[in-house]
Specification:
alpha/beta; 11 helices; globular
């Protein structure tokens, strides 16, 4: 008998990949909840849903996680074994200009879902957090027991708050919460506002790309297939009642090196427009994944040298279709 799973934000980049993966397993009845907001084109999210639909049938509910009245009927109609909560207002820089929207969506929305998980006795709650919670962390690589009390963007603060709420609800009500700190995810269907996708578009159009700082900032870029493997393992995790895991590649790549890889994969040189460092940006992210390796059997497979050509191939196909 199939189990029921709810994916919030399932029309997005990571959510649509997770839904596809679960449908291919044929073990799950999948419900996707998404508001199809205009942070980026809703048409992209509808295309993501079409890609999921090509694999198998699922239930789609359009609604806003800020509105309990949108969420409660979903829980009334289906008894979920697991909720994977990926819906959020994403991005460090936009959060600087819209902190209230980020707090309402990422904190209040998460609280709404935790309340419903408690009311409807959901056994497993997986929360999509972010490496941004570490802020400017002097110690590298970043480990889950490092302090996260100094976030440097509203987005980071909302994700840290979401983790704390998960801990509180596990402690008080006994259902398992698993918080996953994603490190710079990329791959097919990546959001168009993220650097790899944005750079690819501008390079292919012969337009300048803005590089903030001197190009020496470093990120732990994680291919989406590896992230999905970690999320999938967290759905089955049956250890402690509350846990936090880093999901990254555990390797860092300098921004200038990333641009070189994109140039080689796209067959075109980038025009660089150097800009000052932006508020809220961190100089480095670097995941210690030893805990995820040990408890989730997490083992990322795709190095950046393999992942960027894969992304470029998808990007080029998308451009040809347009």
């Amino acid at each position: 008998m199939k189990k029921n799973i709810l994916i919030t934000g399932g029309a997005g980049f990571i959510g649509s990949h997770l839904a596809t993966h679960l449908l291919r397993e044929d073990l799950w009845d999948v419900t996707i909840f998404d508001d199809l907001n205009d942070f980026y084109s809703p048409d992209i999210k509808r295309a993501n849903l079409d890609a999921v639909r090509s694999v198998g049938e699922f239930r789609f509910v359009e609604g806003d996680i800020r509105r309990t009245e949108d969420l409660r009927p979903v829980f009334d109609e289906t008894s979920f074994e697991c909720v994977v909560h990926l819906a959020a207002r994403a991005g460090v820089r936009p959060s600087l200009s819209q902190p209230k929207l980020y707090a309402e969506t990422n904190i209040d929305g998460t609280l709404n879902l935790l309340e419903l998980a408690r009311d409807y006795e959901v056994g497993q709650f997986v929360f999509g957090s972010s490496s941004s919670v570490y802020g400017i962390n002097a110690k590298v690589p970043f480990a889950e027991d490092d302090r996260i009390h100094q976030p440097i963007s509203p987005y980071a603060a909302t994700k840290a708050a979401g983790e704390l709420l998960c801990h509180t609800y596990s402690h008080l009500f006994g259902f398992r919460t698993v918080c996953l700190r994603f490190f710079t995810v990329y791959g097919a269907r990546q959001r168009p506002d993220l650097a790899i996708h944005k750079f690819s578009r501008l390079i292919s159009e012969g337009k300048p790309i803005q590089v903030f700082g001197d190009g020496t900032t470093r990120r732990d870029y994680t291919y989406v297939d590896d992230i999905i493997a970690g999320v999938r393992a967290s759905i089955d995790y049956d250890g402690s009642v509350h846990e936090v895991f880093n999901l990254g590649e555990s390797e860092t790549t300098e921004l200038s090196r990333l641009i070189e890889l994109l140039e080689a994969s796209l067959g075109q040189k980038a025009i660089i427009d150097h800009q000052p460092m932006q508020p809220g940006d961190v100089p480095m992210t670097f995941a210690d994944i030893s805990k995820a390796r040990r408890l989730l059997n997490y083992s990322p497979q795709t190095k950046i040298e393999e992942g960027i050509p894969k992304f470029a191939e998808w990007f080029s196909c998308q451009n040809r279709e347009e």
